[in-house]
Amino acid sequence: MEILMKTILSGLALAVGLTAPALGADAPLRAPAPFGAAASAYQWSGLYAGISGGYGRGSAHQGMTTSAYQGLGLYYGDVNESLPANGGLIGATVGYNRQFDRFVLGLEADFSLTGMKSHGQAPDGDIWVPGDRATQNWSTTLNWLSTLRGRVGFTFDRFLVYATGGLAVGGVTDRTRLDYDDGAGGGFSASDRSSKTHVGWTLGAGVEAAITDRLTAKLEYLHVDLGTQTYRTDLRRILIHADAKVTADIVRAGLNYRF
């Protein structure tokens, strides 16, 4: 009996010794993955360029003083009115981002052509002689807008939420037309225009999303204040000084390509 038990135990030990290498070959031991070895988050650092377009609701405030001379006598007609200046805009963007953990700092410049324009009219009568009439028509157009802004944002992997602000520069054209009727079949019409560059500031916010590793899409809001410039218009015998202040609230979307 004792001999039989020893024989059985020896056989079991031999079987275990033979099968262990096979089991080890089928299920090799693996070292545990290091902590934090998950797929890396989207990286926003680098140079990019793109296009943008949107719509602006603006205001062109005219503080206008009219004086007459050359035999008509002195007259001052004051206009102080704020008119809507709305329209679309389309342009190009270039910028650079630097990411620090989940924070992003950037610098962005853009240039847009715009169709934002205001119209106004100021009729007046009995100016120099009874029955005469003078009508001023004017318009203020924001022809182009350019900004240079800093951006500060926080990332949610492939999404970037940011605030932005900086310098705003715009090209503005002020047009004026005067129609004068002396009430006795005489009179004249004259028109003129002048263009100036307005310099101001802008402040806004936006969100940007990575569509692919290279392509991103953004939606952005900007408030723009281009300050005030004085326009002098000489319409034959009428001299007009107009102080034009231009502001705008702009919403635009864009596509950027990261290099």
TrEMBL record:
Top-level lineage group: Bacteria
Alphabetically ordered keywords of this record: Cell outer membrane, Membrane, Signal
Keyword Membrane annotated: yes
GO CC annotations on file: cell outer membrane
Keyword Signal carried by entry: yes
Pfam families linked: OMP_b-brl
Alphabetized InterPro entries for the sequence: Beta-barrel_OMP, OMP-like, OMP/PagP_B-barrel
Subcellular location: Cell outer membrane
Residues in the signal sequence: 1-24
Domain Outer membrane protein beta-barrel: 37-259
Listed SUPFAM superfamilies: OMPA-like
PANTHER family given in the database record: BLL7405 PROTEIN
Family listed: Belongs to the Omp25/RopB family.
Protein's name according to its UniProt entry: Porin family protein
